[in-house]
Design a protein that fits this description.
alpha+beta, elongated, 192 residues
């Protein structure tokens, strides 16, 4: 080093032009892994496949939700119009606990009843209050599934609600938007 490159104390001076330039990262082919195999790059195809799978899962959730809503509506209408009125003898009522386990959340009662000469032992739907064993309650059995019963009072006050279709409809709107965005990404040329 010449005297021009040292300051008065004798320490080397670094030219200003090298102080302003930050070092560039090495090119990919010059980088080695410390141990083991090098990490692979997850390509565009993987992410497009994962996104397509996600869209299929969302579509399946919508279909299952719609089928469930239609079935519930049909069951309510069927039980109101053609339900089989039965006398149910309560066999047991178990207390339910709330989410924290510190408070009561009603009861689940089971009962025995007969339809067409067959005895059923099932949960009494819509019954959330305690009833002693041996108590008789009035219920309605589903004509297409005799193993499903609901209290008569609950069947009288129940009605099919269009609000059951709002969540699947909202998810369908999200699916349409995501599908539109997915198609735009698929049509875009990959950048190299």
């Amino acid at each position: 080093m010449t005297e021009a490159h040292r300051d008065q104390a004798g320490t080397p001076r670094v030219p200003v032009s090298t102080q302003l330039h930050t070092p560039q990262p090495p090119h990919r082919e010059h980088v080695n892994s410390l141990r083991g195999a090098s990490a692979g790059n997850i390509g565009r195809t993987f992410w497009l496949g994962a996104a397509a799978l996600g869209l299929v899962v969302i579509a399946a959730v919508i279909v299952v939700s719609l089928i469930s809503a239609f079935n519930d509506h049909a069951r309510v209408d069927r039980m109101k119009a053609h339900g089989i009125h039965v006398a149910v003898i309560v066999t047991a009522c178990d207390g339910n606990l709330g989410g924290s386990g510190s408070n009561g959340a009603g009861y689940t009662c089971r009962g025995a009843y007969r339809v067409d000469g067959t005895t059923f032992h099932e949960v009494i739907g819509s019954m959330a209050t305690f009833a002693a064993s041996g108590t008789t309650v009035r219920a309605v059995a589903d004509p297409s599934n005799h193993g499903t019963i609901t209290l008569s009072s609950a069947v009288k006050t129940s009605k099919a609600s269009p609000w059951a279709f709002v969540p699947p409809g909202a998810i369908a709107v999200v699916l349409i938007i995501l599908t539109f965005l997915f198609v735009r990404v698929v049509r875009r040329r990959p950048s190299n």
